[in-house]
Design goal:
single chain, four-stranded parallel β-sheet, 8 strands, 10 helices, alpha/beta
Length: 247
Amino acid sequence: MNVAIASYAFHGLLRQGMIDLFGYLESCRYRYHLHTADIWSGMLASTDDDYLAKVRRALDERELTLVNLCVDGPHIWEDDPAVREQHYRKALEWLHAAEVLGAKTLRIDAGVRADTFTDEQFDEIVRRFREYAQRAYDAGFKVGPENHWGAEVVPENMRRICEAVNHPGFGVLLHFRGNEGDAVMAPWAMHTHISWEITESCLVESMEMLRAAGYQGCWSVEHHSGVNEYTEVAIQLAKVRDVLSRW
């Protein structure tokens, strides 16, 4: 089954010093019997090539495919041009990391904390995503934002970005909300994050909607409480597997 666990699901254990990236990979393979990984940047210690080579070796030794590299920080838009440039340089590092690690998808956010984009913001976001998408396409993966903060939470904003970028190397990390907005973004979904709230309320409806839209990517669960994570994640994963097994 094409299922995964976002490593952010263990951020509580990470904060307590009770797990690291390599422990996460070990858990994916041998605790949860997966062949996938969904790595959050907060669990990666570095983007240096020597460290990335160790991570790639750990993935390969466990026969894990990196279905998503989920990056916080270098979103495209910041009001200060100097900060925007810093974010751009950092985004290039993460594009390189995705290539080294063999990622299938890479999440980099658009930015903008307001509910709407100005013309200047929108044009810059589209320009950079086109650049990133071409590089991703050339390397065999997809890149794009997640609908989880700022202007990206508004489905119509995401639709505008998708239609304007219009590139085969671009997609959306669909963070299920359980509302009509999910269907707006479904045609561009490259990856998913399924929260506890969704697994406990409208999991079947959400997954069936995305399946009907032709989704071929991975179904990845993400836990947010920071408490009892090993068990809570197992529950979420079992519920997603149950839907897939019924299909």
